[in-house]
Amino acid sequence: MSSGDAALQSSSSKASKKPTYSRFTQQELPACKPILTPELIMAAFIFLGITFIPIGLSHLSASDHVVELIDRYDEDCIPVDNSNSEAAYNKRIGYIQDVKTDKTCTRTLIVPKKMKHPIFVYYQLDDFYQNHRRYVKSRNDEQYRNPAADHKTAHCEPESMNNDNQPIVPCGLIAWSLFNDTYSFSVNGNSLPINKKGIAWESDKTHKFGSKVYPKNFQSRSLIGGAKLNESIPLNQQEDLLVWMRTAALPNFRKLYGRIETDLEANEMIKVVINNNYNTYTFKGKKKLVISTTTWIGGKNDFLGKVYITVGGICLFIAVAFISVYLIRPRPLGDPAYLSWNLDPASN
Predict the structure, then answer these.
(1) Given the DSSP bridges, would you call strands 286-292 and 119-126 parallel, antiparallel or unpaired?
(2) What does the angle CA 318 – CA 322 – CA 324 come to, to the nearest 5 degrees?
(3) Is 249 helix (H, G, I), strand (E, B) or coil?
(4) Contact 253, 130 (CB under 8 A)
(5) Given CB 3.0 to 4.6 Å as the disulfide criterion, which of 4, 131, 141, 242 pairs with 200?
């Protein structure tokens, strides 16, 4: 070999991008390479079935132990015709928008089973689209946190400034439409207190809403959207507002109103005095009062339990079907010893 050929070979070897040999770069490290045999597949489906079905049954059992009272009051608490005619619709709107009308309504609920405290009181709204894009964007989180940012009302239109061109705090349509129906309870003539402390998320009280931000110019325009706020109390202590500001993903939703801290016995009669102020009649929505206990899965909800049972049942059905086919018409399998990773590397 001439000196020129040697130099060319040396230059070629230096320019090579071939990595240094290792078991990692050559993918020779130990690995799990399971063979999906019929026995393994059938065992996996059986395992999933016998795991999911008991979980689903435990969820359904916990849900059945929840005691829940639901009372729709929006139709009964308005003294006008509830037909679907245009005239009746206009009367309902006129009634709910008249600030001089006494909108007090009394309802009576009977406790079906003993309810152990804490008992949670919710209001439920149906056909209210809090997830509407423009509604969700109508807020300014910096204004809610920082007292020096009260002038920052970007994205809050049309509830950003009052008639005197002063900033509204808290601004935006979400705060403006704050739910303003109120409930008071009594049992056997004795008042039943509702604890409204601790109903909002702790992170909202400590991070999202400021302790030095106070309402200002709120609900001061001619068109009132909902509840008013106490201007002497900072936003992070007005927990009804904090609960409302967490917008719901679906048009039918519940929000926590408060807690009853005493037990209620079976067949007790609860007298509820409702101030029916919130206007759901314009968009033909529904209002419900919900009183409920909870278990380890939360409130009453059969959906998750039914999903677990359904998936577990499907897994068992597939396992039985595979077993039947395997026993009736078995198929010969290849010898795993001939797989590439089972062969002796020296013989390749």
Answers:
(1) antiparallel
(2) 115
(3) coil
(4) yes
(5) 242
Nearest to 288 by CA among 126, 129, 142: 126
The helix-helix angle for 38-64 and 303-328 (nearest 10°) equals: 150
User: What SS3 class is residue 18?
Assistant: coil
Of 107, 109, 108, which is closest to residue 68 (Cα–Cα)?
A: 109
Please give the model's pTM, rounded to 2 decimal places: 0.80
To which H or E segment does residue 46 belong? helix 38-64
Distance from C-alpha of 323 to C-alpha of 334, rounded to nearest angstrom: 19
pLDDT, one tens digit per residue, over 210-244 is 999 999 999 988 788 889 999 999 999 999 999 99
- Give CA–CA dist 55/309, Å, rounded: 8
Q: Given this model, what pLDDT does residue 223 score?
A: 81
Contact 174, 155 (CB under 8 A): no
Which runs of E-coded beta strand occur in 16-127?
68-72, 104-110, 119-126
Fill in the DSSP letter of residue 147: G
Which residues are CB-contacts of 70 (< 8 A; sequence separation ≥ 6)?
124, 288, 289, 290
- The 10s digit of each residue's pLDDT in 327-341 is 888 877 777 777 776
DSSP string, 197-234: TT-S-HHIIIIIS-TT---BSTT-SSS--S----TTS-
Q: Once rounded to an integer, what is the mean pLDDT over residues 297-321?
A: 94
- Structure-derived torsion over alpha carbons of residues 106, 91, 89, 100, reported in degrees to the nearest 10: -60
Q: Three-state SS for 298?
A: strand
- Sheet hosting strand 104-110, strand order edge to edge: 104-110, 269-275, 182-187, 190-192
Give me 261's structure tokens.
């801290």
SS3 call for 255: strand
Tokens of 284: 């033909």
Q: Which run of H or of E encompasses 185?
A: strand 182-187
Tokens of 313: 């049942």
d(CA 317, CA 197): 50
**Residue that has been written with the tokens 């929505």 in this structure:** 285
